[in-house]
Amino acid sequence: MSVFDWKENIDYDQFLKVQRNKWTQEALINVGCRLKYISNIEDILRNEGKNADFMAGCFKQFGQFPTNWLFSAQIVHSLLLREIQIDGASENELWFSVGGKKARFGQREFCLVIGLRFGKISEIINTPYVANENGIHKRYWPDKEAGDLKLSTVYDRFIAGNFLEADDSLKMALFLIANNVLFGQPFDKKVTPWLFNLVDDLEAFNGFAWGHYVFKMTLHYLRHGFRSRNSKKGYGKVRYRLYGFPWAVEVWAMEVMDKLINGFGMRLQDTLPRIRRWTMHKRLRNFVQTILDLEASIRSEKDDVKEVLEATDDEAQADYWVGVDYNLTEGP
User: Fold this and answer.
1) Would you call 211 helix, strand, or coil by DSSP?
2) Where in this chain does the record put each DUF1985 domain (predicted)?
């Protein structure tokens, strides 16, 4: 327990890492993830008779996903501005002050949002890459080094169809979702080579600790990609890029502050994992004032913030919840 929890009526704004008078409120955040491509991927898998296999695998939560969902740079940036430093916090969690109340974004919250499991990371991520002789890399791009392959090249080949082996459509689909959706790698950038060898073994791919790997990547870029001020004098916005899956922060914010997106988004069906409960369908206008009004409501105790997310009975039985407290000292 934090020493600050022993006190009453703590205003956690006093522990802000960046004081409010130093904030640049408006932000442009570049993210490589393109959710709209998921529907294209599913169409190909249906045509190839592989959609059932996809829906039985580790990325099933992205099946029939609302691909018109908008990423909100303003939600993510507004929260990152409100990061606080508190006693006893793990290095694998972020704490925020909203209206003077504290809220945690850690591995448990990430797991509940995205539904990907934690656990021991395969050594494949650290093994020097040598393409499998009978793998999809050699089968489709025999004369190309992985370091020369752009993600767009893999996507274009996938869309073209005419796959050479029965599972190749599924393997390419999983490869694309991992690289673009979860890692946030733009289509004009190079692929992540070890993913080729991992996806050649579908059992190993589905058993990979995706929650562990993607959470650590996301956390790294939330910490090191974030900019609170713009170095260009007179420019009213900050610009930065986030890799990993920062959409999880957006969903988490909706879960801990259910009035945050009134008028901008909506809650869908009550389903699991929680990323499938929400959608953001309108561009946020004047969100700076929206969150300030919400903070005022929280301070007056008309609204509240959930400090942590707790697993429901159903979530506690979910396969992705097993290993959620795995030690994250290893990994990327």
Assistant:
1) helix
2) 85-219
Q: How far apart are CA 36 and CA 1, in angstroms?
A: 42
The number of C-alpha atoms within 13 Å of 296 and in the hemisphere containing its C-beta is: 6
* Sheet containing strand 101-106, strands side by side: 83-84, 93-98, 101-106
Backbone angles phi, psi at 279, to 5 degrees: -150, 145
Q: Return the pLDDT at 235.
A: 59
How far apart (Å, rounded) are the C-alpha atoms in residues 142 and 140? 6
**Six token digits for residue 283:** 């561009």
For the chain, the 3-state helix, strand and coil shares in percent, each to the nearest 5, are 45, 10, 45
Q: How many Å apart are CA 64 and CA 42, to the nearest integer?
A: 8
Tell me the two tokens of residue 207: 């058993």
Q: What percent of the chain has pLDDT over 70?
A: 94
- What separation in angstroms does the CA of 152 have from each of 53, 89, 126, 175, 204? 24, 40, 24, 12, 25
Q: Token digits for 227?
A: 């900019």
CA torsion through residues 300, 302, 305, 311, sign: positive
Residue 280 bridge partners (DSSP): 265
* Cβ 135 vs Cβ 197: under 8 Å: yes
CA distance 158 to 43: 11
Contact 93, 271 (CB under 8 A): no
Whether 297 contacts 243, CB under 8 Å:
no
Which amino acid makes up residue 250?
E
Rg (CA), the chain: 21
Across the range 81-110, mean pLDDT stands at 97
Mean pLDDT of all residues belonging to the chain = 92
Residue 250 has pLDDT above 60, yes or no: yes
The answer to whether the beta carbons of residues 42 and 60 sit under 8 Å apart is no
Rounded-to-integer distance, Cα 215 and Cα 212, Å: 5
Is the peptide bond preceding residue 273 cis, with omega within 30 degrees of 0?
yes
Q: How far is CA 72 from CA 40, 273, 280, in A?
A: 23, 20, 8
Beta bridge partners of 238: 27
